[in-house]
From TrEMBL:
Name of the gene this protein is made from: rocF
Recorded metabolic or biological pathway in which this protein acts: Nitrogen metabolism; urea cycle; L-ornithine and urea from L-arginine: step 1/1
Classification via NCBIfam families: rocF_arginase
Cited Gene3D superfamilies: Ureohydrolase domain
Main enzyme class: hydrolase
PANTHER family attached to this UniProt entry: ARGINASE
Cofactor details (free text): Binds 2 manganese ions per subunit.
GO molecular function, a single term: arginase activity
Protein name according to UniProt: Arginase
Keyword Hydrolase: yes
Record-listed E.C. numbers: 3.5.3.1
Organism lineage: Bacteria, Pseudomonadati, Pseudomonadota, Betaproteobacteria, Rhodocyclales
Catalytic activity: L-arginine + H2O = urea + L-ornithine
Family: Belongs to the arginase family.
PROSITE patterns assigned to the protein according to its UniProt record, in alphabetical order: ARGINASE_1, ARGINASE_2
Source species: Uliginosibacterium aquaticum
């Protein structure tokens, strides 16, 4: 049966520290995400963009910037993702900044509980995104979604799924991490997150890293990938608001995506933090679409099972 994919745009930079990620969905469309996926025999519907509040660009209040607006955007994302999953579709969230993952993954977790599936989240990112209002240096909510999903954050975000926490720390595997704030570092350690940082990848290679992150997947596992474009090295992906040197190379990123595709378990996807205002001739969007294509089975040769 042809896989039914839906594209859901969330054009906002409400949780970020730089403007521009609101243009990310359109940049991915300009990079031909829909026709490229369709070229692999996939059925792709573009549901357009969700609506939400504009970015007021205000300072943080009680440790959070734009909390009310972030909540509103995440509710819209949650409802759209959940509707797609309930319709038997594979939703791709086109962000937008990474705070939107609260709504996206809350919907995935809710759906998994309803259908009795296990959930595995792969968080591809330069950052752990495990800050709280008391340890954040900026108040930007795109640095807090993993903490919110694990039950640490404002009630409206923490309770967006049908239970608190939406996910347990052992449901999530972080890959490519190389920038963690000081207080956040202690909190990640206390919570016991599985973090495959760049040192781990340097020492063990991307193949071993992905083997560990994908270990134990079975027919009853829903695999969600949350792909922050700043996961990639800035030399190949300059179009992001938070550049951190030393990320995965093109080939390392391709191997990561190809090994995910090989599992056949990918069931939902976020693509976030693409910032065309900081890009060069849509280079980063083109690369993101190239990697998404690999997530859905593009390979150099026909592989034996």
């Amino acid at each position: 049966m042809t896989q039914r994919i839906v594209l859901i745009g969330a054009p906002t930079d409400i949780g970020a520290g730089a403007r521009g990620a609101s243009m990310g969905p359109e940049a991915l469309r300009v990079a031909d995400i829909k026709p490229i996926l369709e070229s692999h025999g996939l059925s792709v519907e573009d549901h357009g963009n969700l609506a939400g509040p504009t970015n007021p660009w205000l300072p943080p209040v009680a440790g959070y910037r734009h909390l009310a607006e972030v909540i509103e955007w995440n509710r819209a994302v949650h409802d759209a993702m959940l509707a797609a999953l309930q319709a038997g579709q594979l939703p791709i969230l086109l962000g937008g900044d990474h705070s939107l993952a609260v709504g996206s993954i809350s919907a995935v977790a809710r759906h998994c509980r309803a259908v009795g599936k296990k959930l595995r989240v792969l968080w591809l990112d330069a950052h752990a995104d495990f800050n709280t209002s008391t340890i954040t240096p900026s108040g930007n909510l795109h640095g807090m979604p993993v903490a919110c999903l694990c039950g640490h954050g404002p009630a409206e975000l923490v309770s967006m799924s049908d239970q608190v926490p939406a996910i347990e720390p052992w449901n999530i595997y972080q890959i490519g991490i190389r920038s963690v704030d000081q207080g956040e570092k202690r909190f990640v350690h206390e919570m016991g997150l599985d973090v495959f940082d760049m040192r781990f990848i340097d020492e063990n290679g991307m193949r071993h890293t992905m083997e560990q992150a994908l270990l134990g997947l079975d027919d009853n596992t829903h695999l969600h990938v949350s792909f922050d474009v700043d996961f990639l090295d800035p030399e190949i992906a300059p179009g992001v608001g938070t550049l951190v040197p030393g990320g995965p190379t093109y080939r390392e990123a391709q191997l990561c995506m190809e090994m995910i595709a090989d599992t056949g378990r990918l069931a939902s996807l976020d693509v976030v933090e693409l910032n065309p205002a900081l890009d060069v001739r849509n280079k980063t969007a083109d690369l993101a679409v190239d990697l998404i294509e690999s997530l859905f089975g593009k390979s150099t040769l026909m592989r034996r099972s």
